[in-house]
């Protein structure tokens, strides 16, 4: 009886070892394909559920998507469709209940929160609809903040912040606090902050929704420059000015991709 159990245990260990080896081989082949085809974002069968009281809401429903380096992708769909959730998953602000996400050939869906926080600090720049500036910091300090977290020297933090504030046309507002800036100026500071660590991926969520037409034009010109620099950009928006820059448009509804144009 003891001998039988030993053999059974050996078989079980062998099966588990083969399963691990197969998974490692599959992961290696996938990473090789991502590298060869320059796929910077890879999502497979993503599911994200949220509990609201006694109800479970499925914000993302078995989404698969690939985005190549340098692509400008627009995610378009009605309010509540799950666009923001998808962006948060891609950028590592949230983790899926099911499925895999590779960002820059790293499987971020399997990362712990502390490692994920460090990863997204360097690899993903976020621009939010409501700016999310730190109210007690000046425009320049807000832009510098992510590079401070990344361990960049103070002199290089400031140098980079000045460059970016010049790029977005706000160098003369560098010492102003957020409440002293207009909505459009705050959004341009937020864009500069997203770029400060030179991340390969820029993610934006309805970034011109609260802005006037003149400011929207300024935002578009910034993203035209990013497109010319071959940055990978993924934006959820209905702004036709930004949509005009798109290489692809992902139509999103009820947590699902309906069509890609």
Describe the structure.
The structure is a single chain. The protein has 261 residues and is an alpha/beta fold. The protein is 43% helix and 25% strand. It contains eight helices and ten strands. The protein is globular. It starts with a helix and ends with a strand.
What would the keywords be for this entry?
six-stranded mixed β-sheet; globular; single chain; 261 residues; Rossmann fold; alpha/beta
Give the helix/strand layout.
Layout: H1 2-36, E1 39-52, E2 55-68, E3 72-76, H2 83-91, E4 98-103, E5 106-107, H3 113-123, E6 124-127, H4 139-149, H5 154-167, H6 183-195, E7 201-205, H7 213-228, E8 232-236, H8 240-243, E9 248-253, E10 256-260
| Secondary-structure class | alpha/beta
Please report the distance between the alpha carbons of the first and last residues: 64 Å
Number of domains: 2
The geometry reads as globular
Please provide the count of β strands: 10
The chain-level mean pLDDT equals 89
Quick summary of this structure?
The protein is α/β, with parallel strands linked by helices and 261 residues long. Helices cover 43% and strands 25% of the residues.
């Amino acid at each position: 009886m003891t001998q039988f159990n030993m053999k059974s245990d050996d078989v079980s260990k062998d099966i588990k070892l083969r399963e691990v080896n197969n998974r490692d081989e599959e992961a290696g082949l996938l990473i090789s394909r991502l590298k060869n085809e320059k796929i910077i974002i890879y999502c497979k069968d993503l599911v994200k559920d949220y509990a609201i009281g006694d109800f479970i809401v499925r914000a993302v429903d078995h989404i698969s998507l690939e985005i190549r380096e340098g692509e400008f992708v627009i995610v378009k769909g009605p309010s509540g469709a799950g666009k923001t959730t998808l962006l948060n998953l891609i950028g590592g602000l949230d983790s899926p209940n099911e499925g895999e996400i590779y960002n820059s050939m790293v499987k971020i869906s399997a990362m712990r929160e502390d490692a994920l926080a460090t990863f997204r600090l360097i690899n993903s720049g976020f621009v939010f609809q409501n700016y999310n500036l730190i109210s007690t910091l000046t425009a320049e300090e807000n832009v510098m903040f992510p590079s401070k977290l990344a361990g960049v020297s103070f002199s290089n933090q400031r140098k980079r912040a000045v460059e970016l504030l010049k790029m977005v046309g706000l160098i003369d507002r560098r010492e102003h606090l957020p409440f002293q800036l207009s909505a459009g100026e705050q959004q341009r500071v937020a864009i500069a902050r997203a770029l400060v660590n030179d991340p390969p991926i820029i993610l934006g969520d309805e970034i011109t929704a609260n802005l006037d037409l003149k400011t929207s034009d300024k935002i578009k010109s910034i993203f035209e420059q990013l497109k010319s620099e071959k940055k990978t950009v993924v934006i959820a928006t209905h702004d036709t000015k930004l949509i005009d820059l798109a290489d692809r448009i992902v139509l999103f509804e009820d947590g699902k991709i309906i069509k890609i144009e």
